Amino acid sequence: xxxxxxxxxxxxxxxxxxxxxxxxxxxxxxxxxxxxxxxxxxxxxxxxxxxxxxxxxxxxxxxxxxxxxxxxxxxxxxxxxxxxxxxxxxxxxxxxxxxxxxxxxxxxxxxxxxxxxxxxxxxxxxxxxxxxxxxxxxxxxxxxxxxxxxxxxxxxxxxxxxxxxxxxxxxxxxxxxxxxxxxxxxxxxxxxxxxxxxxxxxxxxxxxxxxxxxxxxxxxxxxxxxxxxxxxxxxxxxxxxxxxxxx
Length: 247
Hints:
Elements: H1 2-7, H2 14-23, E1 30-34, H3 40-47, E2 51-55, H4 59-68, E3 75-78, E4 92-97, H5 106-116, E5 117-130, H6 136-148, H7 152-158, H8 162-169, E6 174-185, H9 187-195, H10 208-222, E7 228-239
Parallel strand pairs: 1-2, 1-4, 2-3, 4-5
Antiparallel strand pairs: 5-7, 6-7
Helix pairs in contact: 6-10
């Protein structure tokens, strides 16, 4: 968990400006951050002056988020899921979802979001898509995950595609934007970033030593002044959810 908290990528601050322009986001709006995890997305809105309700089913993640965001008086969190947030009906102005979106059951989640959103409220799905081919380092890191990742292919295939977003929001009922994002690491940071991934073999795994040796070789071949740069594209999708039969 320490690696996850310290080394997972955050989200560009331009995201808030985008939602201000496109959705009229104001400091008075209450945000439900569903699948809030360690609080990386929640922090952006707290820094904007919003109140944020984190909804997180995993107790360890929820505790880490509460600790990470302890300095923000506008944050509170509850045990809940995307299908059952425990929040009151028509109580929030925005529902945001970060990296967890691809794990949600679409129909039940849609029903719950419609239930908790105020009329005219917005749903925003955000995640970081790591570059896999823009540089020699990016290609090498992807090759390393394909070789050593325990279930990397399965996780990669689970990420939402256009048809999944259309099924959730409704065809023509959402907009999309991409923003550039990145992290820079020394070797210790890069190793922590790798260990933070659920599909990376842990220290007790037979492949761990070989994986870390390959990571060291990749770092040395691509580092500049002792650092490497991991590039992302932050995907942002937003819209107003239409009520469906059964909602």
